[in-house]
Write a structure and sequence with these properties.
Layout: E1 8-12, H1 17-26, E2 33-37, E3 48-52, H2 58-64, E4 68-73, H3 83-103, E5 108-114, H4 138-157, E6 160-166, E7 168-169, H5 178-181, E8 182-183, H6 185-197, E9 203-208, H7 222-225, H8 237-242
Parallel strand pairs: 1-2, 1-4, 2-3, 4-5, 5-6, 6-9, 7-8
Helix pairs in contact: 1-6, 3-4
């Protein structure tokens, strides 16, 4: 079991949106947080140790893993990227983080996977982590690869892990799809907290959503993990309506995109490298 009072937890990608929400949610109870990002980490508290580094820097990773009991791996390319950059961070960087963690004796890894790991399933099908992955993009492929590495680490080396298939993380829901897939700042902090505290999650895959009325998943492993999300995208339905979002279509099971991955499942492939 990871002890919030005494064990050091390393968080990669700590300057990003989810990393910032985790800092707000974890710092009160987790007394030894080591934070890393390629960008500066603002206003660290006394129990936060910031390190500016690239996850593709293996030597820097080896140094920062010293004395770490658990890793929360958030760092990754998202948004605008080319495939070379995606591979460098989401494949090579992921490998380096996981492998330096293994070699350093880390006992728990919490991995920011994605619902794009199963994004090619039709939206009409209620998905569960027990189903085979169906990634909707190379971004999703590398998330599936991370989950597979963690399965190998558990079977071969006994490293416990929780892969969080995160949905639409935003402060508030942003579109029709997020009525089903929204994950709020408070709920993501709670989700990571219980993933670290669980006495023995094994090698667990969890769907990372808030408690949305229009959830399109079942048996997401929440009860086993002890995850009890509080927020519901439905509470923001009228806000979305005022923004011109069709919030009534889902009442009739009519969604803007036919797959769980939304636009990812039909988007053109990214360029190999920036021009």
């Amino acid at each position: 079991m990871i002890d919030p009072a005494s064990d050091t937890v390393l968080v990669t990608g700590a300057a990003g949106a989810i990393g910032t929400a985790l800092r707000d949610g974890l710092r009160e109870h987790w007394r030894h947080l080591r934070l890393t990002d390629i960008k500066p980490i603002r206003d660290p508290s006394p129990n936060e140790e910031p390190i500016v580094a690239d996850v593709a820097d293996r030597v820097a990773l080896e140094r920062m893993m010293q004395g770490v009991r658990a890793v929360v791996h958030l760092a990754g390319m998202i948004g605008n990227y080319d495939l070379e950059s995606l591979f460098r961070v989401n494949a090579r960087g992921l490998f380096d983080v996981f492998e330096t963690a293994r070699l350093s004796g880390v006992e728990r890894i919490v991995f920011a996977s994605s619902n794009h790991a199963f994004g090619c399933y039709p939206i009409t099908e209620r998905v569960t982590p027990a189903l085979p992955p169906r990634p909707d993009s190379l971004y999703g492929v590398f998330k599936v690869w991370g989950e597979t590495m963690l399965r190998n680490y558990y079977d071969r080396h006994g490293i416990r892990s929780v892969s969080l298939r995160i949905g639409t993380y935003r402060t508030l829901p942003i579109d029709q799809r997020s009525l089903a897939t929204w994950l709020s700042p408070g709920d993501v902090a709670h989700l990571v907290d219980v993933s670290l505290r669980h006495p023995d999650p094994g090698c667990l895959v969890v769907n990372g959503y808030s408690n949305n009325t229009r959830l399109k998943t079942y048996d997401p492993n929440w009860a086993f993990l002890g995850y009890q999300p509080r927020d519901n995208a439905e509470d923001h339905r009228e806000m979305l309506r005022a923004q011109g979002v069709d919030v009534d279509g889902p009442d009739k099971d009519e969604w803007e995109w036919p797959e769980h991955g939304g636009s990812h499942a039909q988007a053109p492939e990214r360029p190999v490298r920036s021009v």
